[in-house]
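User: Quick one: structure for sequence A, then sequence B.

Assistant: Sequence A:
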Amino acid sequence: MTCTASQSRPSRAPPERTNASVDSIANKRKFFISKHSHVCRARRHWIILDVHSDQYYCIPARQFDLLGPYIHGWPSVASELPPASDRHSETTKDVLAQLVSKGVLTERLTSERELSLSPLAGPTSILKTDDVPSAHCSRALLVTTFWIACATADRRLRKQTFESIVQRVDARRSGRAAQRPADDLQILRYLVAAFNSLRLWYPRAYLCLFDSLALLEFLSWHGIYPRWTFGVTADPFQAHCWLQDGPIVLNDVLSRVCGFTPIMSV
């Protein structure tokens, strides 16, 4: 049921029993989705990204649908509700208890986030940088900020929690996203092209998590704050991330990212 963000697929083992009483949990009032949890449906599964624990939880859609009546914000259409015998089964109670014990579901109103079952907006185009003039002299001036950005991303991924990194990125973008120059698309194309040409010289393997964070840090030095988007697939499970400015992908190809269902964008 679970996997870390660095794993390629979650375990399909049955939910483990928790110390909490499953009956007492199931008999309580409805729960909220915690602020650090993000939910999306990917084909036959519901996937939860728990930013706090840096874990993905992959639950079959039919099993997760049985939890709906226990969750605030879940669409309550009488004709679509599962039979009561299924909603109160031991398996459903076990999954519910496990999500509560892991902090994905909470009773505290101050710790909740609005449950949104609508898919996040996906990308529709990519940022084209092939035709950007190779102004090597002017790009050389960006070497310092490039190395600082890469070193910063490298250090944060080694020393800080995933949750603290995400919170910092979200707070920074929210506070400064409106401060953008009128010709920012041309500037963006130039900066991304410069980053790509310099990336060869930074001694770290190409990985979507590092490269997206490093580019994010690099662009922030120049007053541009795109969104860091995470996407997932199921059957088999895969997770990926990229940078997106509106509907435009900055550091990947459209054919690849469109295969992923966005689960979080900060």
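Sequence B:
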Amino acid sequence: MGLVFNPIGLAVNVIVGVIVVSPVLWLAGRAMAGKEKAKFTDAVWIVALGIIIGSMLGVFVHGLLGFVASLILWLGLIRHFFDTGWLKALVIAVVALVVFAIIAAVLTFMGLLVLSRFI
């Protein structure tokens, strides 16, 4: 069986990723790199390119090597678009991940509260 390219799935992935991840990445970038360097459009480009290139990369590279390659890809995109060094790019990525996890936990808790009223 050959490699299958699903352009609709990739487009949906990019759109959802941009809507969900870009604001969090932008906020983390503004906090760490400053508002002059971290523009919202940069965060959108980081997420869109990260998903597209990462999807293509994931077809060929798997496992631990794939994880390391994806990590370097995302850090490189953050470094380039937010005009920072590698360490600050890593810090921005970690801060964005923590903020995203907190938002997801709060939304999950709120959803469970709402559902508990109907059960």
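Residues 8-118 form one domain. The mean pLDDT is 92.

User: Thanks, that's what I needed.
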